[in-house]
Structures are given as C-alpha cells and as structure tokens.
Amino acid sequence: MQRLIGQRISYQSTDQGTQEYLFRRSEAQAAYQDFIWLTDAQINTMTQRPELMTLEHRTFGRLIAEPILLRLSPTSTITPPPVDWPEQIKTAQKDAQLTLLLGNGEALTLNLVDILEIHFPNQLSWVEKMQVFGKGLLQFMVESPRQGGTEGGIFPALFGTVITVLIMTVFVTPIGVMAAVYLHEYARLGWITQTIRIAVYNLAGTPSIVFGVFGLAFFVYTLGGSIDQLFYSESLPMPTFGTPGLIWVSLTLALLTLPVVIVSTEEGLARIPKSVREGSLALGASHTETLWRIVLPLTTPAILTGLILAIARAAGEVAPLMLVGVVKLAPELPLDAEFPFLHLDRKIMHLGYHIFDLAFQTGRTDASLPFVFTTALLLILLIILLNLSAILLRNRLRVRFQDDKKPI
C-alpha cells in the first residue's frame, strides 16, 4: 500500500454503499494531479499527524509535507523535536533551508525566504483556524494571481471589473439620456424616428460578440489608430491607443448597454403626466427649463433602473472584452501614482474572463476549480452590491420627489 500525505477535502457515498474520500495530494506540483479519490478498500489506515505542515511557496505553490530537517547554517541543523518544531521554523532566519518529505517519498529542500506561509493545521485551535481562514480570504482579495491563477488572489481582476463598470457608466449615462430625450421630446413622429427606435430595440438583442468585433474594428483600429497618428506619431509603429486597452473596453460595454438605458429612460419620460409639463409652461417656464427642472428629475428613478440593468449585464460580459483589452494577466493596474494617474491605454484583467480562463484554459483543472467557484461567487456579490447601491439611490430619489409633490 502506497503512503499518501495530503489533506482530506470531502467524502461521498457510492452506489455500492462504500465511502469515497477526496484528498489533496502533497506532490501535486510534480504529478499535476492535485486531487485524488480513494475508496474504503484502497485505504488501510488514515491518521491525523500533528507534525504535518502546509506551506505556500513562490515556485511550487501550495504543498502539504512532513518537515524532516531545518538547516540554520552550513554547520547547524535541527531535526524535528515533538514539541517546539513549529516554533523553530517560524523563528528561523530567512537564509535557512527547510527539507520536506512529500507523499511520494521524495525529499524537497526549500529556502525559507521563498516560503510565503507556513501552518501546522493539525495543531491549530478553532480560533486559530478561523484566523487562518480570514487571512487567506484577505489575501485572496488583495493579492495578484500566481501559478497560472491557481494560487494567490484576484485583486487585479476585481479592480479591472469595477473600474470598467464605472467608466462605462460615465459614458453610457449622458449619451443614453440625451438620446432618449431627443426621441421622446424633440423628434417628430415619422418613419425616421420609428426606424431609430427599431434599431435601438434590435441592438438590445444583438449578440455581445458582435459588439466586440465592432469595438476592435472601429474603436481600436480606426479611432485609436487616428489618435496615434495625431498625438503619438513619435511612438509609431508601436501603438499607444491603437491597441486594445481600458478605454476601448469601457466604450464597447457602453455601446453594448446603451439600448437598455435609452429604452428605460424613454419609458420613464412617457410616464410623466402631460399636466406636469403644461403646468410648468403655464407658469412661464420654457420647454428647456421644464425638461431640465421638472421632467428629468422625475425621470431619475427610471434612468437609474436602466443603469442597474446595464451594470448587471456589463459586469458579467466576457466575449467582447477579449477582443478590446481584457487579458489573462495584466502586469500593471490602470490606476497608479504616475501621471496621468488613470492610464486608459493599459490592458486590464476582468473577473468574467478570469473565470473563463481558469475553467477552460489551465492545465491544472482540479486545482483551479476552487478559484473558479470563489471568483464566480465574488462576481455575483459584486453585481449585487452595485445593483443595491443603485436601487437605494433610486428609492431615495423616488421618495424625495413624492414628498415634493405633496400639497402644502
């Protein structure tokens, strides 16, 4: 029977009435089989050994092993005593070396300076386990991906998603509202206006990948190439804006969600009673003043409803983003302390694309699945948070305008 050092994750009952256990292997990096299922018949004994440790290494990722030797200097070594062995490792200098015994019987020597985290899980109390869990969750939120996304965190993807949605909102809100105001308040009824409305409705049902192709052709190559010719000719043939980047991702998403904002705003304008407009005009206000001071404030809840739907769709899109600026790994964030601070030409990471990449483009599927599920949950929570913020703002404005209409 072969010895296995690893972490038991879960178990399940089979149709034959036996139990199957899921283990995370200690030598996963070498075997590229991070998880393995074993049945009762394949397990002779299963014990929890207090000396086993888990660690995060810069190169090898997460390892589960038995420490067998701590080399403090060329002439000073320590073998694991039964009591203070964990403390010896944690207090050793960073130039020390730690030798581990993996589950396949191989010995692995690591420099402590390359080890990010060390834990002895079988020696932790319940409170210490919760502290380790909380620290791991924080690292997942604030660190960059490692080991092809199967280790580390997802902060660049989270940051890229949020800033993309915010910039998209800045673009889509004024354009969508102005288009809806023109169609409902100024455009004459006729076949031209009807054709525009039909085109808007059709755009709402267009596959998102079509917007990605259009964004690549028009925004990146045409508009971005023209900007490079006018303002960055000294950098050519290396493009500055004539290549996928944050600005083109945001504009593509704005174009994708524009029909939603237009339709929602126009429906809000249609619900404003005609008597409100007539009363304002009767008091001497112009048509523009009536629209700006009376009609649009009353339409704000409908505008925010359109934004809620736009944010929900934009935050989860993947297909068009791969063409206009979202990449597997972005070396730099688009926002930093270097002028102009917000770098619209940089490529970004995105939670949706990060999920796709981990699920289908990595060779270590078993190791990436926990990150896929966690990132998907985080994306859902992010969309809920953005939507709740818009809903709360909409409800506050709705109550405010209802109070303004009460008689004095």
UniProtKB/TrEMBL annotation:
<feature type="transmembrane region" description="Helical">
    <location>
        <begin position="371"/>
        <end position="393"/>
    </location>
</feature>
<dbReference type="GO" id="GO:0005315">
    <property type="term" value="F:phosphate transmembrane transporter activity"/>
</dbReference>
<keyword id="KW-0813">Transport</keyword>
<feature type="transmembrane region" description="Helical">
    <location>
        <begin position="203"/>
        <end position="227"/>
    </location>
</feature>
<keyword id="KW-1133">Transmembrane helix</keyword>
<feature type="transmembrane region" description="Helical">
    <location>
        <begin position="247"/>
        <end position="270"/>
    </location>
</feature>
<dbReference type="InterPro" id="IPR035906">
    <property type="entry name" value="MetI-like_sf"/>
</dbReference>
<feature type="transmembrane region" description="Helical">
    <location>
        <begin position="291"/>
        <end position="312"/>
    </location>
</feature>
<dbReference type="Pfam" id="PF00528">
    <property type="entry name" value="BPD_transp_1"/>
</dbReference>
<keyword id="KW-1003">Cell membrane</keyword>
<keyword id="KW-0472">Membrane</keyword>
<keyword id="KW-0812">Transmembrane</keyword>
<dbReference type="GO" id="GO:0035435">
    <property type="term" value="P:phosphate ion transmembrane transport"/>
</dbReference>
<dbReference type="InterPro" id="IPR000515">
    <property type="entry name" value="MetI-like"/>
</dbReference>
<protein>
    <recommendedName>
        <fullName>Phosphate transport system permease protein PstA</fullName>
    </recommendedName>
</protein>
<dbReference type="InterPro" id="IPR005672">
    <property type="entry name" value="Phosphate_PstA"/>
</dbReference>
<feature type="transmembrane region" description="Helical">
    <location>
        <begin position="154"/>
        <end position="183"/>
    </location>
</feature>
<feature type="domain" description="ABC transmembrane type-1">
    <location>
        <begin position="158"/>
        <end position="390"/>
    </location>
</feature>
<comment type="similarity">
    <text>Belongs to the binding-protein-dependent transport system permease family. CysTW subfamily.</text>
</comment>
<dbReference type="GO" id="GO:0005886">
    <property type="term" value="C:plasma membrane"/>
</dbReference>
